[in-house]
Design goal:
With 181 residues, the protein is of the alpha+beta class. The protein is built from two helices and nine strands. It folds into two domains: 2-31; 45-173, Hcp1-like (Pnp Oxidase, Chain A, Roll). It has helices at 2-28, 101-108; strands at residues 45-53, 58-72, 88-95, 114-122, 130-135, 138-143, 157-162, 164-167, 170-173.
């Protein structure tokens, strides 16, 4: 009988203390920040894209949700002993805003000779910003989706080939002699 009483007493205590523990955890975790759909930025990092059209000497600015790059180095064919390709560098851009007229013209291929810079800045830290610079880009693929829902916003995603790419001043990709993209 005493054992049953202890079991009931422990279950009752857990019922009330469990609620208090859950409330305490929720209260302490309320400072967590999620991605903000209004400005497309995560609160801890701000990512911006600057595109300069060298022909018209104009600069355009865009907010990014994210960006990544991929470098493919040349490789030799085993049988022939020569390079199969000259390598390439692909830059992926996830915009946090709608495409404007300049960006759409650039995707269509009517704007040539642009250079760009991506800056990644930690908002709440005194870290030095990361800077990615690139030149002579050409669109590999672009997508933009439209849906009739308020829960999702689908901004443009671009994948571009670049001739040169540097990260914090360090050349990562310097182009290829016979770059076939």
């Amino acid at each position: 009988m005493n054992r049953i009483f202890r079991t009931v007493h422990v279950c009752t205590a857990l019922k009330y203390y469990g609620q208090a523990i859950v409330f305490l955890l929720l209260f302490l975790g309320s400072g967590a920040q999620a991605q903000s759909p209004e400005d497309g930025q995560t609160p801890g990092v701000k990512i911006d894209l600057k595109i300069t059209d060298q022909a018209s000497n104009t600069t355009h600015y865009y907010k990014l949700l994210g960006s990544s790059y991929s470098v493919r180095k040349p490789f030799a064919l085993q049988k022939e002993g020569k390079f199969a390709n000259d390598g390439n560098c692909t830059l992926i851009l996830e915009l946090a805003q709608n495409a404007d007229e300049f960006l759409l013209k650039w995707v269509a291929g009517t704007v040539k000779g642009v250079k760009g810079e991506i800056s990644i800045v930690a908002v709440k830290a005194a870290d030095k910003p990361r800077i990615i610079t690139f030149t002579d880009w050409e669109v590999a693929s672009a997508s933009e989706s439209f849906y009739s829902t308020n829960e999702a916003i689908w901004w443009p995603h671009l994948s571009v080939y670049v001739k040169t790419l540097s990260v914090d001043g360090v050349p990562v990709f310097t182009g290829a002699a016979n770059a076939k993209r």
